[in-house]
Amino acid sequence: MKLTHLKLEEIFPSKLNVRKKGGGDISDLLPSIRSLGVLQPLLVRPDGEAYEIIAGGRRYRALLKLAEEGIAEPVPCAVMEEGDDAKAIEASLAENIARLPMDEIDQYKAFAALVKKGMDPADVAAQFGVTERLVKQRLAIANLIGPILTAYRKEDIDPGTIRILTLATKAQQKAWWELFTDEEQYPPYGQALKDWLFGGQHIPVTAALFAEEEYPGAIIADLFGEERYFADAASFWPLQNKAIAEKRDAYLAAGWKEVVILEPGERFATWEHAKVARKKGGKVFIAIARNGAVTFHEGYLTAKEARRLEKAQAGKSGEGDGDAAADTKVSRPECTKAMVNYIDLHKHAAVRTGLLAHPKVALRLSVAHIIAGSSLWSVHPEPQKAHSGDIGESLAGSAAEKQFSKEREAIRTLLAIEEPGADEDHRIVPPGLFKHERELADILAMLLPMDDGTVLRILTFVMAETLEAGTGLIEGLGLLLKTDMADWWSPDDTFFDLLRDKPAINAMLREVADEATADAHLSSTAKVQKKIIADCLSGEGRTKVEDWQPRYMRFPGTGYTGRFERYAVTGSMEGRSDNDVDDTDADAANAEDAAA
Q: Are residues 310 and 394 in the same domain?
C-alpha cells in the first residue's frame, strides 16, 4: 500500500462495493470534510489509467457534492498493491485515524510535537495513517499568527480563508488581521485575498513557458490545492516575455504571415474571428492572461478580414491559383493618420531646406513642374496643415523649419514684401510669399535688375516652398540629396504620443536597447516600452544612444511591420544622386557663392 493524492476525476466507485444500503446520506460528512478535508484516505486499486474505489464511497459522494460548490481539492488515497488485503488495510486506517485529534489546530499541535522530537512529516503520516500532504497542511498552520488561529477556532474565519492565509508572510497576516478587526475596513477573501497576497498577480508555475530552473525567485506551494505559485511577478514576466518572443519568431519562421500579440488580459473572442488556414493568410493570435497563462490561437482572421478575403477569392475565381490573401487590405495600419502627417511634415521640412543648397536641382525641378504641373503649381505655398496643435508646434520648433523661415524673411526683404497677417489654421509658422498685394509687374520690376545668382536663389526658395508634402517625390528627393534627418529632427514628446503600434514600438526598443530587453518587455504596455526608448536616447539610467532615427525618418521611409504604408519613390530617382545632374551653366554652378 502507498499513500498519495489523486484528482477527483481519476477515481470511480467500484461496482462490487459491499455497501448496498445506507450509503446515500452524506449530510454528516459534509461539514467535517468542508472544514477539515478528507482525513481517512479512500482505499483504491489501479484500473487502467484510473483507480477503482474499494472503500470510501460515502466520502467520494461527499467530495462530488463539494465539487459542485466549487471546493475541489486533491483526494487522499491509499493505493492497494498486488497481495494487499483490503479489509486489513481499511481496519488499520480506521484504527489510526481514530487516534487523530478531530480539530485542525489540535492536529497541528500533535504533529508539531512529533516533529519537535525529530520525526519528519513522512514518519508522522505513517504513524497516523494519513498522507504526508495532510501533515504538511496542518504544519502550515504554524505559520499563522495567534489572533488568526483564535478567530478560526471561534469560527469567525472560514476554513477556505485560513488555507489561503497559510501562503502569507507574517507581515501580510498582521496587515490582513488589522483589516479584519477594523470596522471601517473590508479584508479581502477568496480570489481577492490571493490577488492581495501576490500583489495583484498570483502566477501559477504551470503558466510558465520557460524552464522552472530559470526563475531566480521563490516558489510558494499551495498545500491545500494542486498549484504552486511564483512569488515574484517582476522576475516572472521578463522570462515569460522572452519565451513568447521565441514562440513568435518560430511561428514566423514556419511561414505564418503575422503573429498578433494581444494586450495582457485582452480576451480572444473566437466568435469575432474566423478560422483561416495559414496558406490562405491566417494569423496566429497570442492571448496572455493576467495570471501569466498564454494561449496560442493558430489560423484566424478577424471577421472583417475574413470577409475581405472571401471577396478577394470570389474576384479571383477563374484566374488560376494564387494567394487571394495578398489582395486583402490591412485592417490596422502600423501608423495612425496623425503619425503619417507628423512624419510627412518633418521630412518635407528637411528636404526643402536641404534643397536650398542645391539650386541646380531646384532649377531643373522647376522646369519639370512647369512641364508636368502639380497640385501646387498654381502657384501656392505648401500649407503644411497639421492635424493638431501639438504637431504644428513640433514642426515650428524644428531646426529645419526655423532655418527655412530665416530664408523666407531674407527673400521677403529682397522683394520688399511685408509680413502677412495671421493664419487661421493650425500652422504656427507664417505663410509663404504668395499672400501679398504686390502686382506681378511690381515683382518683375524687382527681379529685373538682380543678378542671376540672386534670382536663382529666389527661384530655389519658391520651388522649395511649393514642394508638396506627403508624396513619393519627397522620398525621392531625400534620397537624391542624401538628406539626413538627424541633422534636422530628433524624437520629441509629440512623436512618442503619436506612436501607438506595439509591435513597431517593441522593434524600436530592439534597435535602441537590445534584443534581450525588447523580448523581456514584449507584453509590457506601450507606455513602459516608449519610456525605455526615451531613456536610452537621453541616457537617463541607460547607455545613451546617439543620433537614433526611426525607420520612418529614413529615405525612402520603411516601417517595422508588414503594415507600414509608405510612398513609392517617384519615377526613376532611386539610385541617383545630386552628382548625376549635369552642370553646364557656370552661373548656376556659382549660385551659392553669389547668394552668399
A: no
